Amino acid sequence: MSEQEIKDLEKIFEERIANDEKIEPKDWMPEKYRQMNIRQISQHAHSEIVGMLPEGNWITRAPSLLRKVTLLAKVQDEAGHGLYLYSAAETLGISRDEMYKQMLTGKAKYSSIFNYPTLTWADIGAIGWLVDGAAIVNQVSLTHTSYGPYARGMVRICKEESFHQRQGYQIMYILANGTKEQREMAQDALNRFWWPALMMFGPRDADSTHTDQSMKWKIKIKTNDTLRQMFVDQVVPQADILGLTIPDPDLKYNEETGHYDFGEIDWEEFWQVVKGHGICNKDRLEAKNKAWNEGEWVRNAAVAYGEKQKEKQVKKAS
Ligand code: FAQ
Question: How confident is the model over 235-257, as pLDDT tens digits?
């Protein structure tokens, strides 16, 4: 393709973005746009898949049969989200195997939040309320992202995440209105998950590598700081209803801006976790590698079954 032809295609692409048109898999797109989407969508998929581990840890210990089936269904939903997202990324020309290997080898990132342990049952409530809550704030904005398959995947994922958020909040509500020990357990979970939940939105806008270009191409619709503020504004009144205290002495409603001001995030901790030095980074990757290795026979059996079915169809047709 000549330089002029590429320039013309770039112009058409930029116009389509400006007009809020969705970019579809077979459309022409700049290579950088393709790569940025692969990066974000695959990291998002890895987060869903690794995110099954902290909650999966409590399935056998959930306090009742109802809690057990609900948690089981939630964790299965997260697997489904991972699969939609891998499929969306595959439409950009990368294979699922390649993405998965990037995650297993620690080359690809996944959300920092899943490197924190789940120590008590209240942590399952805090994850549903805060982690799914933060995920929804981010993902509702991503339903308007410019890449069609990602945007459509987000619509369905958000519906399921809002159910997850409610089940988490309901766990917190029951605990917060229970015995003294239960209230203390709920408060302790909030204390440990509050700051990591705020870190899910990524570095400050001023320190973010990708935000400017992502916003230009409408891969991201809102910046990290904007989404973080939306989350804080949404969650503070919810904590008040629970009668729990958000562990931030600087948290205060600002009459002038109409938003809650909040304290400084420990960015040193954030980058340590992102770089692989969080409490559970090593365990998470070990668990995923173990599952991958031990599941080899299942994958082989599925491929063999698929081939047999194909042979049967060919025989029928001939
Ligand atoms: N953790 O330039 P930016 C869920 C990395 S929800 C780890 O600002 P960007 C649901 C970033 O990748 C959680 N790494 O990056 C669930 C980049 O590294 P790179 C997943 C982080 O992309 C609930 C570098 O720092 N949601 O799973 C984090 O513009 C319960 C510079 O940062 C999504 O992925 C972090 N927190 O903005 C499942 C949503 N933050 O690639 C189970 C889609 C930043 O240059 C249970 N993603 N980094 O090596 C996004 O919206 C964006 O990618 C952000 C980051 C906002 C996460």
Answer: 999 999 999 999 999 999 999 99
